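Hi team,

As requested, here is the filled-out complex form for the coenzyme A run. I kept the field names the same as last time so the parser does not choke. Let me know if anything looks off before we queue the next batch.

— J.
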Amino acid sequence: MGYKNILVDQEDHFGYITINRPKKLNALNKETIEELHLAFEDLDRDEQIRVIIITGSGEKAFVAGADIAEFSDFNKAEAFELAKKGQELLFDFVANLSTPVIAAVNGFALGGGLELAMASHIRVAGSNARMGLPEVSLGLIPGYGGTQRLPQLVGKGKAMEMIFTGAMVSAEDALNYGLVNHMVEPEALISFCEELALKISRNSPMAIKAAIKAINANFEDGVNGFETEIAAFGNCFGTDDFDEGTSAFMEKRKPEF
Ligand code: COA
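And here is what came back:
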């Protein structure tokens, strides 16, 4: 499928998505969000793909936010739709994808860029990355899940500070806050993500899908995460992956999922 704003690739069990608007620091316009939705959907459907790595093109930015030029003249109703549609198509979609998504944060991850990284399941930052939610400096607030996912990752106090000041934090601070899982040298960013992806891809995709669902249940209103876990645990039994995983253990060999 031909995309205008993103590059999609796959090799062995890994899918790669690169947001490719380097001249606009990979800012997310409507079309890019729609393309990202389709690319994630396609890779998620492909049973060969066990992990998706998302990054930004160029050396400067992962994503410098939602495209400000596109929404600058929106009225309240249009802005409401922008946030709602964006969350459905991309941010919630990624957070609930069955295939694990690793964000390789290779530079600025601001506004919608940080929100996309936070919607991903795992974040790895290059040491040159800078992250923040600067929306209040524009007279608005994060609209792609930032007010919800940032406190989940860093706690309410730090999230309030980051959102009220709009200040960028360094990769090192982000690591200390728990905003990213790892910080590595920029040159090693993708290979580090691939090593992580390799470890994940050796495990049961069915079980990982169930784990994503159960972990996310912890953050869903009105959902009992423990009950979700119990049901998902039960559903693993009797599956091919369960048979393979337990047989391999008994036979002292590595499982092949
Ligand atoms: N939306 C639209 N365009 C953006 C953008 C965004 N979020 N972020 C950067 N760009 C564009 C700039 O307008 C510029 O385009 P131009 O060359 O046509 O003028 C280009 O990307 C390069 O950005 P520039 O600002 O010149 O780079 P810089 O190195 O001086 O600054 C940043 C980098 C990230 C600090 C700065 O671009 C910035 O503050 N961007 C907006 C961040 C933001 O507020 N995001 C939240 C949006 S809700």
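Two things worth flagging: The domain at 6-201 is CATH 3.90.226.10 (2-enoyl-CoA Hydratase; Chain A, domain 1). The two ends are 28 Å apart (CA to CA).

Thanks,
J.
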